């Protein structure tokens, strides 16, 4: 469908972007996001289901399957969308299927949202000549990016627009490392003309316009210019600016060029974000991506919005940070880790999408080449983990979800990555980066232990009594039994692991059996003991 004429409405995409914080979530958009929305209609549950072309139908009171007549009527009338409230997550599947069959978009309204508020806001957006002001953060984002690039490259960074005006720059603790060009650019908020003329003379700007790669600039001590790396920031063929990295007292990091490639792609998003429509577009992308990862939004919406191929392979990486170094600001550390992940990932995969969700950061890698080796994705994740440790002092864990056949299965890949991170958090995995094939047994044992932890009725009370006895008397009977079981009954091996005499271990195992009545000669009892005695001690 074509975009409506001025004054006659907006597109569904513009409506969703202008709503700001999501009062609604897009569940299905079988006709795409560019369908025109010209009016809002309220459908009372006692009314006959009707609709008109281009309407946003608010199905008040029609929850779950009760909204099916409204969807069918809206489809017949070529309405833009139907908005409903859901009582249970499972209702979305049936309604999404019905909306797709009817060819009409489906929006789920948050339970706390008042219908009259959504009605009035949607009418203002549709009828008004301009969408609400949605300009995103400006230079603050760029300054954070400049600082991230400085950490990754070991250099001194500035980000400039196409007129060589300084938009952001990294902090430098040693003024002696800063050369004249950098100093004068920062003081004047723009590159000084004599130096810019030299860069033009050397063909630097021409190379930046012609290439998407990193351009080296040789040092010129006589002019007060140290060695530099530069890369153009662009949105497609449109130049947006440049990132400059000046070498200080130490050589730049070996992976400086790779970091610059990723930074240029991230900077492009942040620069265009200053425009209202693009800013809202970025927010809509985040909403659709988060919904896809959580399984609350179908894949078609994100694919339509970004022009992605639904059938190409995809995978999800999940990152979780440990405790930052002492004295670090937690919120700042989270921002730095997120920035580091975004830069590294963008350098490796142009179409990567990033979504921080609570304490974890998820990266969706869509449209992967068929047959991409797992080792390649693992190396990407390992680079991020090592960079976080080396540059930020933050222990980062990474989990690689399964590579799925298309965007529809992305929630499965995310769930698998979460299972691995959960096992890492519980202490069942020693690796920094892992896929399920690396740690299948550890993950499954970790999940069984989590079940035993939650459901005390599944535990053997005699083993519980053994750990309680240790707690009261300061003994180590349970620990000794577990070590003996892990060593498959090899007393000397278990005793060596505990740093005790083999006879002491034999006594402790016999004492545990006498106190509790457990019979460790029974295979089932040994199996249960090996699991239950791994549970963390309770206070």
From TrEMBL:
Taxonomy of the source species: Bacteria, Bacillati, Actinomycetota, Actinomycetes, Kitasatosporales
CdaR GGDEF-like domain mapped to chain residues: 301-422
Residue stretches making up the PucR C-terminal helix-turn-helix domain: 477-535
UniProt name for this protein: Helix-turn-helix domain-containing protein
Originating organism: Kitasatospora herbaricolor
Family note: Belongs to the CdaR family.
């Amino acid at each position: 469908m074509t975009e409506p004429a001025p004054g006659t409405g907006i597109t569904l995409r513009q409506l969703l972007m202008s709503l700001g914080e999501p009062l609604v979530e897009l569940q299905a958009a079988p006709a795409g996001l560019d369908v025109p929305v010209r009016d809002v209609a309220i459908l009372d549950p006692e009314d006959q289901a009707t609709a008109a072309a281009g309407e946003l139908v608010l199905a008040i009171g029609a929850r779950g399957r009760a909204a099916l007549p409204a969807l069918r009527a809206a489809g017949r009338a070529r309405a833009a969308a139907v908005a409903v409230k859901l009582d249970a997550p499972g209702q979305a599947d049936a309604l999404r299927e019905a909306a797709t069959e009817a060819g009409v978009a489906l929006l789920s309204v948050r339970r706390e949202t008042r219908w009259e508020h959504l009605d009035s806001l949607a009418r203002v957006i549709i009828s008004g000549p301009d969408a609400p002001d949605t300009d995103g953060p400006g230079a603050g984002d760029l300054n954070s990016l400049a600082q991230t690039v400085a950490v990754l490259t070991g250099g001194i960074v500035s980000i400039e627009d196409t007129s060589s005006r300084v938009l952001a720059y990294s902090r430098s603790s040693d003024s002696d490392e800063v050369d004249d060009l950098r100093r004068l650019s920062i003081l004047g908020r723009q590159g000084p003309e004599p130096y810019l003329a030299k860069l033009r003379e050397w063909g630097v700007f021409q190379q930046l316009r012609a290439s998407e790669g990193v351009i080296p600039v040789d040092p010129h001590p006589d002019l007060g210019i140290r060695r530099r790396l530069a890369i153009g920031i662009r949105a497609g063929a449109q130049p947006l600016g440049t990132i400059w990295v000046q070498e200080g007292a130490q050589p730049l990091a070996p992976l400086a060029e790779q970091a610059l490639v990723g930074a240029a792609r991230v900077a492009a998003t942040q620069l265009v974000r200053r425009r209202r429509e693009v800013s809202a577009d970025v927010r809509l992308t985040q909403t659709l991506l988060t919904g896809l990862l959580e399984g609350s939004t179908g894949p078609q919406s994100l694919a339509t919005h970004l022009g992605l191929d639904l059938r190409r392979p995809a995978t999800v990486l999940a990152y979780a940070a440990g405790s930052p170094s002492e004295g670090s600001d937690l919120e700042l550390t989270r921002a730095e880790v997120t920035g580091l992940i975004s830069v590294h990932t963008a350098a490796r995969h142009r179409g990567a999408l990033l979504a921080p969700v609570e304490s974890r950061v998820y990266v969706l890698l869509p449209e992967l080449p068929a047959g991409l080796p797992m080792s390649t994705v693992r190396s990407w994740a390992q680079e991020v983990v090592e960079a976080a440790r080396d540059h930020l002092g933050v222990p980062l864990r990474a989990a690689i979800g399964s590579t799925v056949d298309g965007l529809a299965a992305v929630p499965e890949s995310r769930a698998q990555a979460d299972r691995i991170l959960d096992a890492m958090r519980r202490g069942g995995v020693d690796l920094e980066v892992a896929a399920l094939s690396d740690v299948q047994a550890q993950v499954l044992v970790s999940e069984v232990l989590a079940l035993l932890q939650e459901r005390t009725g599944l535990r053997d009370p005699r083993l519980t009594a053994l750990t309680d006895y240790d707690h009261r008397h300061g003994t180590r009977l349970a620990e000794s039994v577990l070590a003996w079981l892990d060593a498959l009954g090899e007393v000397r091996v278990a005793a060596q692991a505990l740093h005790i005499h083999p006879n002491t271990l034999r006594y402790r195992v016999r004492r545990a059996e006498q106190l509790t009545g457990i019979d460790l000669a029974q295979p089932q009892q040994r199996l249960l003991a090996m699991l239950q005695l791994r549970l963390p001690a309770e206070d």
